[in-house]
Amino acid sequence: MRIEPNSVVPIFQQIVDGIRAAVAAGVYKPGDAIPSVRAQAVASLVNPNTVQRAYEQLERDGLITGRKGLGMIVQTNGRAIALSGTATALSATFAQAIQLGQEAGFSRPAIDKIYRQSWADAPESSGRSKT
Amino acid sequence: MRIEPNSVVPIFQQIVDGIRAAVAAGVYKPGDAIPSVRAQAVASLVNPNTVQRAYEQLERDGLITGRKGLGMIVQTNGRAIALSGTATALSATFAQAIQLGQEAGFSRPAIDKIYRQSWADAPESSGRSKT
Amino acid sequence: MRIEPNSVVPIFQQIVDGIRAAVAAGVYKPGDAIPSVRAQAVASLVNPNTVQRAYEQLERDGLITGRKGLGMIVQTNGRAIALSGTATALSATFAQAIQLGQEAGFSRPAIDKIYRQSWADAPESSGRSKT
Amino acid sequence: MRIEPNSVVPIFQQIVDGIRAAVAAGVYKPGDAIPSVRAQAVASLVNPNTVQRAYEQLERDGLITGRKGLGMIVQTNGRAIALSGTATALSATFAQAIQLGQEAGFSRPAIDKIYRQSWADAPESSGRSKT
DNA sequence: GTGGTCTAGACCACT
DNA sequence: GTGGTCTAGACCACT
């Protein structure tokens, strides 16, 4: 998981987003354990406390649950929660960009063009898409 | 200008984005003064220091220039800088959303659908757009 | 007189320095009137209050004196005061640069080289020098 | 680091100059942390916000980079940036003094003499220089 | 502890 | 009034 340390979005939030996306993508399925706090911390070059905070958030969201000695397990309905949560996050981000563009006087076609250009600039999705 | 105090995007950055959009939209034209630090602070219910910080950023970007006693003036090429800066900001936001969607396994059509839905949810742009 | 509005040295100080240099150079001789506050303000694209403040400083230094209806007159010993004042200002500026260079670990030859290079970069002095 | 609170050069700029000189001199090497905002504030008898402002400037210059919880780290190419920045600052200061001297009608030998005299007045550099 | 952001209030140079 | 700088004190994310 790529963490951008100087982003305006807090690191723990980036981890929340990343795990949620991975569950949505089926990388971790219901009943699977997600990486341990320590493993995730090493992988993301981040302090374990920060990962811990992200996992607490995901637990509050009902996506995972902690079982002593077993680590954090994806809940039965975890994928549905992840898909819905990711869609909501995307929607909010799009809405924010659209609003900023409108305030600047950009027409819908102009904003659509920037959106399409952002796809062209995106790294390959490598055909793994599921939805 | 609407400020969302609890957003992850810092208040001063919201002001930067807002002024840039206003200059891009032609609300303030080259040679015009933008609202004074104090006036903007009152209007946005924000501390003058926070506005000052936003204006410093805009000055570094070459969009405005400040003179003591006179206010902050939009530069000759301010509109071009604002248009380019706004487009860049939009592009970055879109790219971030697209990447998150791809990580979650969303197909391009699925993400496009969320994008279009975000337009439906957006407040009316009232047809004033020029570009 | 060239004023740099965004310099760290205050505008009124730049005017003080400029008038003092002009008196030192003999542009204004003892008994001459220096430009009126209004004329100087127009010439320097500066507010008259700012020029007024500079002239008050020069009067406190004994370089000029105000005579009702006559404007500001260069004192009898004005040139000596101007020469001494300018030399002091130069000395202080040099000392400041030398100290900064030494703190950065620059040797005397290295600093001397930068000093000579600054001469090469200087606009022509046009051979009017008197001292 | 000596701060002169009543100088025309802003305190935050004095801190910028001081840190840059220290990096140029090799006091802080690439990978080292410079003093924390709070530590520097205490050492310089200055408000933490003022130090913060100086560090932001140095970060924009590419000399250091900040990470929450870790401190401000000198960049790999920090020393080169510091050397170049210090030389530029010296050059600007010299140029300013030379110009003022020329306006006052001082000849090059006269200004050179003041420059050399400023060395005589400077506190000993104790022969530690390396360049 | 460490950087990043923010509020509250002040003084200065300049118009 | 207007921008620029500074102090004092606070909270947050991160280590």
Structure description:
The structure is a homotetramer of 131-residue chains. With 131 residues, chain A is mostly helical. Chain A has a domain of 68 residues: Arc Repressor Mutant, subunit A, CATH 1.10.10. Helices cover 57% and strands 6% of the residues of chain A. Chain A contains five helices and two strands, in the order αααββαα. A two-stranded antiparallel ribbon of chain A has the order 1-2. In chain A, a hairpin with a 3-residue loop joins strand 1 and strand 2. In chain A, helix 1 crosses helix 4 and helix 2 crosses helix 3. Chains in contact: A-B, C-D. At the A-B interface, helix 1, helix 4 and helix 5 of A face helix 1, helix 4 and helix 5 of B.
Element layout with pairings:
The structure is a homotetramer of 131-residue chains.
Chain A: H1 11-24, H2 37-44, H3 48-60, E1 64-67, E2 71-74, H4 78-103, H5 108-121
Antiparallel strand pairs in A: 1-2
Helix pairs in contact in A: 1-3, 1-4, 2-3
The structure holds a DNA duplex (15 and 15 nucleotides).
CATH superfamily descriptor of the domain at 11-78 in chain A? Winged helix-like DNA-binding domain superfamily/Winged helix DNA-binding domain
Oligomer: homotetramer
E-strand count of chain A: 2
What do we call the CATH topology of the domain at 11-78 in chain A?
Arc Repressor Mutant, subunit A
Rg over CA atoms of chain A = 17 Å
What share of the residues of chain A does DSSP label as strand, in percent? Answer: 5-15%
Number of helices of chain A: 5
Mean pLDDT of chain A: 91
- Computed structural class of chain A: mainly alpha
* CATH architecture annotation of the domain at 11-78 in chain A: Orthogonal Bundle
What would the principal axes of the Cα set say about the shape of chain A? elongated
Residues in helix, % of chain A: 55-70%
Strand order of the largest sheet of chain A: 1-2
Report the sheet with the most strands of chain A, covering strand number, pairing sense and barrel closure.
Answer: 2 strands, antiparallel
Order of helices and strands of chain A: HHHEEHH
- Determine and state the CATH class of the domain at 11-78 in chain A: Mainly Alpha
Are there runs of chain A of 5+ residues with pLDDT below 50, and where?
127-131
